[in-house]
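Lecture notes, continued. The same structure-token format from the folding unit now serves as the input rather than the output. Read the line below as a description of shape only.
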């Protein structure tokens, strides 16, 4: 045990040294369509290095701030502040009048996915992370004043989501399956437009509304703070009502396309019993089922069930190196290499390990959190030793890389996992 602990400590030190060397390379100057300094998700010359992605940016910034603090590099910390602010300003600069924000901006194209210049309402727009990015940057950099003139952009962003993607039961739905984050999640990928109230989307949105409410309070906008808190509360209740499955004791993405079409299809036939349900659980076990722990929505009893019945189960989620993104006993489970869409059908991603780890810590599952952190450090340290850089996702049983060397992005979050404690 002592030898294992020493090996893990040595792995942590090697990772921190690598991150300290690599972190400045992610701080990209203004160039092309990126009008402000921004944050790259990968090393220069690697895949994605000239791109600015929505949720990747938030997690990368979070990891970078932690690296700067752990290495006591005040100059790096100050530079991250400028580039984090610039990243958010890049997104807001390209916001449409009705509030839509692009998913990704690169140096050649400000709206590659047509999120803003959409010709119909089927285009997805950016994931709801900008309130969280703004609050994180304000906390780390000691001021919210830089955001004061831009706060209305956040309100228009939420309004645009509510206008086109809020379902009748209050859950948010994706327009389609393009660039949803966990790209080929079977509860959204290949399913009908506007039908999937994906748990990742809804939990991100819940946290973002809370973060924006906190920002509103600091900016003295009490009416906005109250409204944002009320929206967050309503969304949280909708998640609990429609996504918790009492039979399986797990959270599922909901299908909101429960439409009684008898009046249209058989108008001459008298209607019988009314349709009493408005959503159906998509009983496919995806790692997103743990996210209500990350965002604090799960009750202690629900968290206990999630951990003991699902997280700890090697037949479903528990791998030697972390949390399978799709349960092993699902028919779609696959560890195949893929680039577009990337593979979330079982491989371990550091972001999924991190989100589950954060929930374990916050709900008091200290031993489970420590083991997950240990395994994640070991996997990444082994990759660094063998290949000189890190990758995007990994085999959950062997810890071997499956895609995109030079990837940093949310891999930086392992620095937070090294220190089990309260969130920032």
């Amino acid at each position: 045990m002592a030898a294992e602990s020493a090996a893990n400590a040595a792995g942590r030190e090697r990772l921190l040294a690598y991150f300290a060397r690599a972190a400045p390379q992610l701080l990209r100057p203004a160039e092309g369509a990126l009008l402000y300094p921004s944050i790259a998700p990968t090393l220069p010359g690697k895949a994605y290095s000239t791109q600015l992605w929505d949720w990747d940016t938030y997690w990368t910034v979070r990891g970078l701030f932690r690296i700067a603090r752990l290495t006591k590099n005040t100059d790096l910390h100050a530079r991250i502040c400028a580039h984090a602010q610039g990243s958010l300003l890049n997104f807001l600069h390209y916001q449409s009048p009705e509030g839509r924000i692009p998913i990704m901006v690169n140096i050649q194209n400000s709206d590659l996915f047509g999120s803003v210049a959409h010709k119909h309402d089927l285009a997805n727009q950016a994931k709801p992370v900008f309130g969280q990015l703004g609050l994180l940057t304000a906390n780390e950099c000691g001021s919210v004043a830089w955001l004061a003139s831009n706060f209305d952009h956040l309100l228009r962003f939420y309004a645009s989501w509510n206008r086109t993607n809020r379902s009748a039961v209050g859950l948010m739905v994706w327009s389609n399956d393009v660039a949803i984050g966990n790209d080929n999640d079977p509860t959204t990928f290949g399913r009908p437009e506007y039908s999937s109230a994906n748990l990742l989307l809804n939990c991100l949105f819940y946290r973002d509304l809370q973060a924006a409410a906190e920002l509103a309070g600091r900016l003295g906008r009490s009416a906005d703070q109250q409204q944002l808190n009320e929206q967050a509360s309503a969304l949280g209740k909708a998640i609990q009502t429609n996504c918790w499955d009492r039979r399986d004791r797990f959270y599922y993405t909901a299908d909101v396309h429960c439409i009684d079409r008898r009046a249209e299809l058989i108008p001459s036939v008298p209607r019988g019993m009314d349709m009493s349900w408005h959503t159906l659980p998509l009983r496919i076990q995806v790692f997103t089922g743990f996210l209500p722990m990350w965002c604090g929505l799960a009750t202690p009893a629900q968290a206990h069930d999630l951990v003991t019945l699902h997280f700890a189960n090697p037949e479903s989620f528990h791998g030697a190196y972390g949390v399978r993104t799709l349960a092993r006993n699902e028919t779609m489970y696959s560890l195949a290499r893929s680039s577009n869409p990337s593979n979330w059908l079982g491989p371990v991603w550091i972001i999924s390990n991190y989100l589950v780890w954060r929930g374990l810590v916050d709900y008091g599952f200290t031993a489970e959190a420590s083991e997950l952190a240990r395994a994640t450090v070991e996997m990444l340290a082994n990759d660094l030793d063998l290949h000189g850089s890190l990758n995007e996702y990994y085999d959950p049983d062997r810890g071997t890389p499956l895609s995109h060397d030079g990837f940093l992005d949310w891999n930086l979050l392992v620095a937070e996992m090294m220190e089990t404690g309260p969130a920032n």
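Point for the exam: Residues 222-243 form the longest helix (22 residues).
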